[in-house]
């Protein structure tokens, strides 16, 4: 109670928030750094037990990529129950962060399928287990007097996610792949820092810093260093969270009271109240997370030179966190107030608009595939345009859903309801994984193939139908004040 009073100043952010945001930035650097290169690693760098190159096919890699993400977002259901009922959020985060770190180290030192699957399982348990606790822990830091700052805190929380992922999305692909001839020629000119910056090429700048500060890294490019740097950031994330242990408001676990209240008729009714909204997020996440798999593989077949920069296929994803850092304040302080003057922009209306924009975003890669099929090599600018649409939808949906899930959850089961929201991400990725494994099976058994053009149109059509179905569901929803 004393901690809550100390954190409940009406004009100030609670003292634990900087530690949560610092922890989130480092942890997201780790997760997105590993995630960014995962498909490329599986299709180009995977080894067999004898150390011989044995990569996966594209369909298999996409299937495992989304199966991994299913685990990451399914396990929060158990993490939420453990936190709310038994260990509390703080202890759950600390212990599972250690599991998470061990998984990262497994992928750093073993590049066979054994190391890959062991690492991904441990990362899914660690990352998934802490996921509902971290976001719910943000809300726990606020009391009735500073509740008005909650939206801003979730906004900054989301900025931290993308701040960490932005740097890792540029850095880890650079560390994975050997220097191109263009980069080697650039280093041979013995550039100055000013000369490197003038190129506006992030890979040239990174190569210069590497050459001047850590020249041995040039010979170490590959999976060990590319997975090792994110592993180090996960250890840092755990340390930052531990340093804030005396700053946090800690809501104690409720034990059997959690079970009795959550699984009582009234408790189940409160939880079920939000499920129709969460269910309609499943197709969104099925599409959204393909920017880390299908879009990366598509980028391999495109002209990736844009504004004088030769982008690596997995680096193109950096457009997303950069745009998030721009869009969050732009939408919060300019776009939303402007729309609100025309008609009331409720949280569910933000989500509904975002769903329609998502459908449009997948029309762009469908068009790109039609150009590739006709023998052209379209420029990566097409994908940048698709990212603008997808990121706008993400900001309208993800940030809004984080606050929606917390505010609509019963007081005793905040982490559980946050886990149910994350379940929509899990099921979206499971759907994508099943589709890809099924397509691979049909191709192997009967030779039936679905063109990449039709693949994208399939998901765009699914998203448009979902957006239409969301309208009557949103109109019937009645908000609860948690």
| SS strand fraction | under 5%
Order of helical and strand elements:
HHHHHHHHHHHHHHHHEEHHHHH
Average pLDDT, all residues: 83
Give the proportion of residues in helices. over 70%
Give me the Rg, rounded: 23 Å
* CATH class membership: Mainly Alpha
What kind of oligomer do you see?
A: single chain
For the secondary structure, the number of strands is 2
**Count of helix runs:** 21
How would a textbook summarize the main sheet? 2 strands, antiparallel
- Low-confidence segments, given as residue ranges, are none
Q: Please, what is the CATH homologous superfamily?
A: MFS general substrate transporter like domains
Q: Shape, please?
A: globular
CATH architecture verdict: Up-down Bundle
Distance between the termini: 19 Å
Number of domains: 1
Strand arrangement across the biggest beta sheet = 1-2
